[in-house]
């Protein structure tokens, strides 16, 4: 009975998380339709406080904050999902290759993974972004994707190493199956919970990192996203003059979207853990996964 | 010993990779790397200083390999060039002036988060499924989703602007003379309080989860059962038997988080106008001070590698199996 209740609760977490994420995706898709004002027009007086007409107030330039947040959702989500996808594809490819082929291949790839883990991400991204100049959303997604695959690769490799010893993989090898087929048909389906965990965590990390980079002045200030909104609010001293609403809207969006993703990941973790336990590597994988989430908090 | 030597070798390799990024990135950009790198420098630096700066970064009239060797030589003699924004200071001087403040924030906040998070993790694991565990663990996970940027802005607005209990910037009041006086230390404490609390909040959840999971895995071990059978007190079993061994993964996580929280410090310092590395870097980014931006990557990498090395040493001290190999 208790187990049933737990599963239900777990599903509820996943359901709430999925609902939040779906809401943001819908807002992003319908941004031009649901935004009440044109984001490039002066529609209010500078730093106008929230009112019935401007629910989240206006910026110093007289732009409607709610409309900007809605349009910003588009940019932030595209960067988040694109970078998350890139991180997951790179991490999975490198992790599975290293774990499956072993030997020299593993040594080289593992060395690269470990080096990428000890070079601090944010400072490296700042160097890249500074040299590229006014970085648009796609460049930021690319930079995040290329620098942040280390954790995914390490976790995937650990799990592949343990799967590699299983009888069904040996059986497939005895049958003379080609390596690509063993990886695609036998390995990847059994790695799906780790890949999913990696992807959701990476999207969350990418959305936060994009906002951070833009806040530090490394984005394209003409693009409207949650990060550039915070950047403009900071450079016009919005908080100091009491215009907290300029910061509140993008911050709220970041926290809400982040909570949605974490809820999904929490549920994935709960559902996947018993399976991990039967594979006899819970300690290693769990530690790696939690280290990873710990880092995502700190790194951004 | 062999273990530690191998680690040092790995760290040297990682540091060279970081330096290689610095070397390659300007050269891979479209256009002339010298023009890109020193676009802002022409206005502020005298010509002879500019010539020296070019040589530091390996822009000499020779092929790439020779340029790379020249650059590595500068890096390993810790000559990071001249700052464009803070002329006439060198990058080295600018970074070293800011480093103590960042170190203070990072170390204090990490130690506080480590202590609180690990203790909470021990308690959560000991009564797993209990009320503390079922409330604490999800909260800890949710806190991971709070970007440090948001927590910093919120803390700044609530406790420095709306209720002006704490200052909105600087490391100490400018009218106080730095020195070993009580007044000076109080001022430092007051200015560092909000940054440290926000940074600690960002990390505490991670330690709770790591410690909890690591403890839970150990509590099923035979020696814990034996300890219970011997009639050891709960407290002794929890701290001296389970927690001592469960600390091992936390130590690795401490090193990783320490390096990561240098990154977190960047944002917190910018929000609180705190004169550490992050704030200095922010000024450098705005002025496109490339030597400074490159220098911070090296010093951050060095900080991360040092943290990892300390973790390795602790690991050897805590885990007897490593002392032989």
Automatic annotation (TrEMBL), chain B:
InterPro entries on file: BPD_transp_1_N, MetI-like, MetI-like_sf
Membrane-topology annotation of the record: Multi-pass membrane protein
Subcellular locations according to the entry: Cell membrane
Keywords: Cell membrane, Membrane, Transmembrane, Transmembrane helix, Transport
Keyword Transmembrane recorded: yes
GO-annotated biological processes: transmembrane transport
Keyword Cell membrane: yes
Primary localization class, coarse: membrane
Domain of life of the source: Bacteria
Signal peptide location: none
GO CC field: plasma membrane
Matching Gene3D superfamilies: MetI-like (1.10.3720.10)
TM stretches of this protein: 7-25, 101-126, 146-165, 188-209, 246-267, 297-318
Cited CDD domains: TM_PBP2
Family membership: Belongs to the binding-protein-dependent transport system permease family.
Protein name listed in UniProt: ABC transporter permease
Source organism: Niveispirillum cyanobacteriorum
